[in-house]
Write a structure and sequence with these properties.
Blueprint lengths: L6 E5 L5 E3 L2 H8 L5 E6 L6 E4 L1 H12 L6 H12 L2 E4 L5 E3 L2 H6 L5 E6 L4 E4 L1 H17 L3 H9 L18
Length: about 170
Amino acid sequence: MESFRGTFTNKIDAKGRVSVPAKFRAALTAVSQNQVTVLPSMNGAFLEAGGPAFNAQIEDILNQLPPFSTERDQLSLMLVGNGIDLPFDGDGRMVLPKSFLEFAQIEDKVCFVGMINKFQIWAPAAYEAFRLDAFKQASKTSGVLAGAFNSMMGRGPVVPSGGRSDGEAT
């Protein structure tokens, strides 16, 4: 299964070509994919991308809905109908369609953000604003998210929901 980790910013040329990070390409080619599925996100002005595991997750979500339901048709339109498989050229680049660039407000640079089974493609300034807000929100919350944030920031251990940090049951 492919795994995408890290954040990378690359230039995009006038034709919409951008070099996909080598680590991300390697993850895709390891599962016999010389392409990536890309679609506009339903959660904001950025793109979602991935390989077979990402596509399988989309199919699993859709298969939980009745086959001819309006909900399944609408979600299929968003997750499948709006997606496109983009091949890599000999230099490891993909060509992002103009409509995708406009949707994500991408101009001269692209920020790739690994999300384990998928990655996101952002305009760098939009990603930085989102990232800063996410850290601010995470530091204010309680529960698992706050525990993970505090552990990551060196402020204490992650405490599982309903558990204690010392390993003893509650």
